[in-house]
Amino acid sequence: MEFISEWLSEYDLNPTVVKYLSTIIMILFIAIICIAANFITKKIVIRIITHIVRNNKYQWDNILLDRKVFHKLSHIVPAMIIYYFSSTFQYFQHLIEKGAITYLIIVGLMIMNSLLNAITDIYQTYEISKTRPIKGYIQVVKIIVITLGIIVIIANMLGESPIILLSGIGALSAVLMLVFKDSLLGLVAGIQLSSNDMVRVGDWIQMPKYGADGDVIDISLNTVQVQNWDKTITMIPSYALISDSFINWRGMQTSGGRRIKRSLFIDKNSIAFCTDEMIEKFKSIHYLSDYMINREHEIVEHNTKNGINRSNPVNGRALTNIGVFRVYINHYLQKHSGINQDMTLMVRQLAPTEHGLPLEIYAFSNDVRWAIYESVQADIFDHLFAVAPEFGLRLFQNPSGNDLRTMMDEPRRDGERAH
Q: Domain named Mechanosensitive ion channel MscS: which ranges (predicted)?
């Protein structure tokens, strides 16, 4: 500043004019230095760093580059230059220093935010991130860092020690707990979810209370994002997964089998003992031939041994069409390529209802993918609906409009025949 003032004084200018001109020239000089430093940093230094990062074997530094950590570091240089030259302006030195320090703190907070985001991205490249997510913890660190940064900025502007402001936070603890209630609950929930391995990114969960039924795509401090099967996204508070119940289908997905649990409702009026013609017919069915021969021999031997009079079908042991059908379904499932034979496989009768006798199939498909599971299930029941009449059985359904129309038309046709 003195050099510029002496140089301007050689032109016999008014001292006031010299003072203002020297100040303006000095400001322009500092601005040119800042612009030049910023240009060198971004166009040369950053390019060199980018070239080094892109051409090495490590991936974590690429993430730092993508998160612009190095780019934001370049903003520190102009602030340091302004702080260094603040003594030039004696009347405004204190104000300029405070402004430069405030800017440095803000840049530091931006760098910390980008660095924490990069740490999250780097961690997510490892498989453990699916079972132990850290996004919630990183968000807590961000809150702490930003809170401390704001306190330091206020302390710097007031010219007071940050410790004095920190001591006053104790009196505001109740207010802070109210403001950060969701964050605190989310932090506690995140720790419990992670330590107990209750939910992971990629898990299929169901939570009807919140309308969630789909895959977990993100676990953060306050929310768990679920992408439903219709591609909508449901936000569930993290602490709700601790306080409320939900279904996690991970066990099914890792077991290698997805449960099929569905019933056929048999018209009870169609259940009857097997006649000789039916038995001979069943012997020709591939899945029943061995069973029918062995079972018939066992029943004849039992009735003969006990001297049972078979003139009445009520006496002794006999085959029923529903029993043979149940055995057929069991054998059919045991040979089906889409059924997991290492898991529970059962065909059972449930308690009769007003809709008939439920014959329940309890088995597991060997593929947990939704489309394939539904295809296997539909294939099985397509076959069973079509084959049930071959056993003399009728499947129950409530009368439809067509059934009622047929019932009304029959008397009319009978009357026409009579005439």
A: 182-250
Q: Is the domain of 96 the same as that of 178?
A: no
Residues 169 and 153 in one domain: yes
Summary mean pLDDT of the chain: 81
Which own/partner contact pairs does 113-117 have at CB distance under 8 Å and 24+ positions apart? 113/142, 113/145, 113/146, 114/67, 114/68, 114/69, 114/72, 115/64, 115/67, 115/69, 116/141, 116/142, 116/145, 117/67
154 torsion bin: left (phi>0), alpha (psi -120 to 50), beta (else): alpha
Q: Give the count of beta carbons closer than 10 Å to the beta carbon of residue 117.
A: 19
Overall pTM surpassing 0.70 (yes/no): no
What SS3 state is found at 206? strand
Least confident residue range of 127-141, 272-286, 318-332, 384-398: 127-141
Whether 249 and 350 map to the same domain: the answer is no
Residues of the domain holding 80: 1-125
